[in-house]
Structure formats: C-alpha cells, structure tokens
Design brief:
The protein is an alpha+beta fold. The chain contains 5 helices and 9 strands; from the N terminus they run βαββββββααββαα. This is FMN-binding negative transcriptional regulator.
Length: about 200
C-alpha cells in the first residue's frame, strides 16, 4: 500500500475503532519462495490488550492458510468505508474522479491457541457480532456441540509488530468542496454511500 503521511491513521484509538467496526478481514501469509495464501475471516480485539491492537481470529483447519499459520509472518487487511467519488461531486475543478477509503494493514506472526482459548475466542466473537441484537444468542447455549467442533477450528492471537493505517477521504480538497462531496454521497441516486459520507465529513479539514 502506498503510505502517504497526509492520509495516515496513527491514532491507536481510531485504529481500534476501525477493527471493532469492520471485523470481517482479509489475511495473507506466504513462506519464502512460495505463493501467498489468502483467506477471509472474522476477528475481534483481544480484551486482554484493552489499549492495543492485538486481535483474535479463527480459521477452519482445512483452509490452506491454516497450514502455515504461526510459522510465517502474516498481514490482516481491515477494510473500512470506501467508494467511488465522481468528479461532478466536487462542483469545482479541474478534478478527476477518485476512490475514497479507510483501510489498515496489521503485520505480525500469529500465535496458535489451544482448545480452551479457542473456545473463548469463539464465544467472544459471537458476543461481539450479537451485541446489537435485542436478545443476543450465546455460544454457551450449545456448548457441547461447539466443543465437538473445536478440533476443526484453528484459533490464533496476533499482536501486530507493524501497523499501516490509511484514510484517504478528500482531505486534500477545500472544506467547501468536501462539504459538497458529503452531500452528494448522501443523496446521489447512483453513488449514494452514507457510511463513506460520514467518514469524509469526520476527516474534513
């Protein structure tokens, strides 16, 4: 990823919020001289690291990525709001269309978890994604069944050794232009994108 200081996310709280709100991530790992393996999985922030970016995640042991997990470095790609921004949204110029986005890359070597810690992370994952429901479902309601599935699950913890966060959200445009982009992202019949609109507004100069 092209790292540009003007778009960098360096605040740990902002990065934690990104992971917390966008827990479906892409993971990439590769051994030297081999093709990279890529997979997609849910992650949650590790409650034992309340101020950091340690994450917990799990894969099916049959996933090709699981075969090398823990032996090599990996990267987790956390994707926040993103979308196409037509040039006409600026109502000024000359400008060209662009793609605004929020993303973070978490680099590190995953630590494989044992059965008890894997069950705990599965329970935490369910609790996280059920949190907004009026009557949250709990993994403990099928504890016996869940424990029978554990041999097929590979849980891991990853404490990033390096983090690259980027929020490219029209910050390089004048404030009045950014305000027009926000309005258009909320109302345009084709490229309406309320989540991106909120992110652009929060980042405006």
């Amino acid at each position: 990823m092209l790292e540009q200081p003007e778009f960098a996310i360096t605040d740990t709280a902002a990065l934690r919020a990104l992971v917390h709100g966008h827990g479906w991530v892409t993971m990439v790992a590769a051994a030297a001289g081999e093709a990279p393996e890529v997979s997609h999985l849910p992650v949650v922030l590790d409650p034992d690291d309340p101020h950091g970016l340690t994450v917990l995640g799990h894969l099916n042991r049959a996933d090709p990525l699981a075969q090398r997990l823990g032996d090599h470095d990996a990267v987790l790609i956390v994707q926040g709001p993103d979308g196409y921004v037509p040039a006409t949204f600026y109502e000024a110029g000359p400008y060209t269309p662009t793609w605004d986005f929020v993303v973070a890359h978490l680099y590190g070597r995953p630590e494989i978890l044992g059965p008890d810690d894997t069950y705990r992370l599965l329970s935490l994952t369910v609790d996280h994604f059920e949190a907004g429901r009026p009557d949250p479902w709990r993994l403990s309601s099928v504890a016996g069944y869940a424990h029978r599935l554990l041999p097929g699950v590979l849980g891991f913890r990853m404490r990033p050794s390096r983090v690259a966060g980027k929020a490219k959200l029209s910050q390089d445009k004048p404030r009045e232009v950014v305000d027009r982009v926000v309005r258009a992202l909320r109302t345009d019949p084709v490229h309406r994108n309320p989540a991106l609109a909120d992110a652009v507004r929060a980042a405006r100069p």
